[in-house]
Amino acid sequence: MALTSRAVLVALAGLVPVALLPAPLTVLVWALVVVALCAVDVALAASPRELAVSRRLPASVRLSGTVAAVLTVRNTGRRTARAVVRDAWPPSTLPDGDAPTGARTPRHRVDVPPGEQRVVTTALVPTRRGDAVAERVAIRTLGPLGVAGRQVSLDVPGRLRVLPEFASRRHLPSRLARLRELDGRATVQVRGAGTEFDSLREYVDGDDVRSIDWRATARRREVVVRTWRPERDRHVLLVVDTSRTSAARVLDATRLEASVEAALLLGVLAAHAGDRVELIAYDRRVRARAADSHSSRVLPALAEALAGVQPALVETDWPGLVGQVRSRLSRRALVVLLTSLDPAAVEQGLLDVVGGLTRRHQVVLASVADPELEQLRTARRTVEEVFDAAAAERTSLERAAVGVRLRQRGVEVVEASPDDLAPRLADTYLALKAAGRL
């Protein structure tokens, strides 16, 4: 038996005669009346087990997007079912913040005559990446009085894959335009960019004299220069660090979220440039991997691989990571390490093994900078703020020193705020391609 709020109101209404006639018998009689009403309502309510429920749900949705979870309720019994249907998705407003989905309208009232069906829709708004799971649907059928009914929970499993938001997509058009300029497909020509021979053309003022093709000039009896284009069909390996340092929060999100956005933007840009893109998420073991050679399939592959990646509270196994890189790359490639520039983590692990990577590959380290650190450095109005500024200044100097040591070993270091990391990394990739360093 399931009681409703109306049953509570009926019971409270009995306080009036009880107050007027304060006798034990009056209380007993009113209690029996309430129980009888509830029993009659339960007896006349349709059985919730005679309702067949099916679920229709998209396979995936992007973070912060809205998706509809549709339930179809069919009445296989002989009575009209006056029901309340609750689609049991975990709410996003839980105190612990662990629920990946918030249900805006979790309860639906439906009247389903015998042999008919009704459709109810729950709007879901994901608040974190990963798999949002709903196991059951609770159904409560009410009697004609609406004071009581029957309730049952039916197993109607559903799973929604929440993909990364890819908010850095807004930077893609401008970077693709610069890429077309490098490739010579736009009206603006970037002379001398790249290292692969493209074509011959007449010399114009401003051309680099080192590009003059003297043999072709002698044949044509006019000055001819060679044009170049950026290298294509290079290998780009994105390594997303998922160790404990990626769990640190910068502003409103973890470092890992900024790394995911940067990996998506660079992966799509490199695929449009004709390079082969591969990704691994690693700490002490491979958490995810993706690879696709077709530009239109790179983004779905990367998003699907990164959807379920979460920080692990372990230290990065840097020798193991170098072994993973070597096992995947047989020739020179661009290796992008999306990790933290934390001095302790870099000095105790990465510095000892990064030389083995830079000897064979072009290595870029992309790290998230904390904007609050700069605020601490500049605020010095009180004694407490002065001490905070001194600690922030020391941290900045240590990070700068680690960056210098990495650059001495041949690593390109990119450090930016969470919103700027993705475009800064894309700009670094375009600069390396234009300089012929891939």
UniProtKB/TrEMBL annotation:
User: Which residues belong to any copy of the DUF58 domain?
Assistant: 200-405
Q: Which InterPro entries match?
A: DUF58, vWFA_dom_sf
Disordered: annotated segments = 89-112
Q: What is this protein called?
A: DUF58 domain-containing protein
